[in-house]
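User: Here's a structure from my thesis project, written as structure tokens. My advisor, Dr. K., wants to see whether a designed sequence matches the one we expressed. Can you design one independently, without my sequence as a hint?
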């Protein structure tokens, strides 16, 4: 399923279609979910439906960043344990509860890679690369695409995560901001700055004879 490229940052091309987060959640649905959460804050037994609803999405989220099923299962256990432990402090902020869970998951993944000094995994699908090329108005072609893939090596993990959340998982900026602990405007600014940084890296890494796309 995976082909690992030998680089400082491990890149994984994943051809399995992953669920995206591009469907807007209605205010009514979020309010209904908030009622479930308040019930779980009172009685932890009511956390089970929330766990059942979000386990698979959180598993996919973590797996995209580890490419290791056993490790993903372990990290997911930690995510939901910490979520249950911290549930009493959760407050509804106008975004889906999943954003809070993804934030915990993001922190768990980052902590794992810090503690183990292992390579961060970036899961790439063909459609991800196509979408990113279109967003950056990059010309098509294998050489340009390879330069774009290599550009991930020169990004900080925080910058990679912005690209993943926005362009691979198609999350709205409001949700990205809540996951990363940013304001919505700051999430937008950081994302677009990362795109500009990638453009410069791609131009630098591309071979002679290719026209600039900036």
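Assistant: Designed independently from the structure alone:
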């Amino acid at each position: 399923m995976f082909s690992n490229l030998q680089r400082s940052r491990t890149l994984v091309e994943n051809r399995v279609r992953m669920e995206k987060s591009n469907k807007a959640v209605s205010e009514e649905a979020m309010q209904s979910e908030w009622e479930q959460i308040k019930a779980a804050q009172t009685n932890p037994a009511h956390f089970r439906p929330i766990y059942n609803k979000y386990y698979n999405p959180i598993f996919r989220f973590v797996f995209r960043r580890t490419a290791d099923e056993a490790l993903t299962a372990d990290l997911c256990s930690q995510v939901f344990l910490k979520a249950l432990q911290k549930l009493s402090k959760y407050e509804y902020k106008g975004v889906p509860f999943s954003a809070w869970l993804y934030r915990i998951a993001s922190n768990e993944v980052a902590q794992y890679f810090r503690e183990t000094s292992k390579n961060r995994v970036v899961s790439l699908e063909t459609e991800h690369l196509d979408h990113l090329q279109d967003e950056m108005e990059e010309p098509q072609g294998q050489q340009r695409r390879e330069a774009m893939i290599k550009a991930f090596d020169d990004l900080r993990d925080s910058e990679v995560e912005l690209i993943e959340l926005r362009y691979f998982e198609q999350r709205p900026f409001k949700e990205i901001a809540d996951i990363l602990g940013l304001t919505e405007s700051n999430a937008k600014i950081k994302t677009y700055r990362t795109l500009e940084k990638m453009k410069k890296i791609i131009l630098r890494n591309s071979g002679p004879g290719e026209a600039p796309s900036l």
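When you compare it with your expressed construct, this may help: The longest helix spans residues 184-205.
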